[in-house]
Amino acid sequence: MKVVKGLDVERYMGRWYEIASFPSFFQPKNGENTRATYTLNDDGTVHVLNETYANGKKVSIEGTAYKADPKSDEAKLKVKFYVPPFLPIIPVVGDYWVLYIDDDYQYAVIGGPTTKYLWILSRKNRIDEEVFNALVQEAKDVGYDVSKLHKTPQSETPPEGEEGPKDTKGIWWIKSLFGK
Hints:
single chain, eight-stranded antiparallel barrel
């Protein structure tokens, strides 16, 4: 799998919106306004905050990303979350490989060592169809079956802050184990 080399981690920090992804058991099936916010920690790791809205409630999980091989210039990261979110005791580590990023750090294609997971991200919650198609082509060019992509619903005005009821019990996480 070809990955980005020389990723400028500081430029990559900030908010990214999920434009499309492959459905996965660890994300709510009916999630919308899905986004990730990355913040650089003093030790060089990255604080990860993944948020989505499911059934009218904001759900989130926090984790830490770090370079898989600190000596490599490849954008191969590991992301560690603790689950379940309501009693975070079990560490779960996944791959986060930046397969493509544009020169302005506005669009990214994320995957891993296999073609099981795929995310198309943007700094804005909506993108032109032409840009979307170009990003899909990037994924297709490295072997992804892009027919499995699911566009993530995004509101015209993205939600900000802490508004709305929250799923503080992690019910979404339990439901996701059963494909709901």
